[in-house]
Amino acid sequence: MDVFMSRDVPFFDPVATSIRAVIPTPRGGHLAMTGFPGLLTHVDGTAYLDPQQMRETLEGLRAAGARELLILTEEAELPEGAFPLISKISRPLGLRLSFAPIEDFNVPSDRFLAQWPAHRACLEAALEAGETVALSCQYGAGRSGLIAAWLLIGAGMSAAEAIALVRSHFPEAVENRLQENWLLEVEKER
Predict the structure, then answer these.
(1) Domain limits of the chain?
(2) What integer pLDDT is reported at residue 10 of this predicted model?
(3) The Tyrosine specific protein phosphatases domain covers which part of the protein (predicted)?
(4) pLDDT for the residue 11
């Protein structure tokens, strides 16, 4: 597994952005896991969007080589206007957005799985071209880690190796037993 822990991981500023990890893959590209760009919390616990932090996160993803950002967050779990704002800010940066929601703390639904082949083909082509594929959920751990590990399994890693690699870059990734077990089942079906 050390072979994929290369020193050429792109730099990102974890303070100015919501990027949690950039992980080298067996395909030569990278997987970037991020919380929803610009999503912050007031001291009273209410969520809000910071357009500057959103822009810095998206610029950081582009600097890391991302042209694709798969958003796994459900629109209802974000402050109003989140999807239109991220679409507006990402467009001039040349960052293509795709939306494929997964319920928080969960695994892909049948609806997600029906759409997955098209998403997977695009993401795998980007990785094979040496690009960075960016994955975003609310915090950047559970759903982003789950899909990152799934892409690594598709690249030939075992589920255990994929989960370990993702967690070596962000320990909170693949955040529960349901997600771990789902990845183990995916490996069996491969």
Answers:
(1) 2-189
(2) 54
(3) 128-181
(4) 58
Q: Tokens 């029906």 label which residue?
A: 114
Instruction: State the fold for domain 2-189.
Output: Protein-Tyrosine Phosphatase; Chain A (3.90.190)
> Residue range 111-137: average pLDDT?
95
State the residue for tokens 């049948």: 110
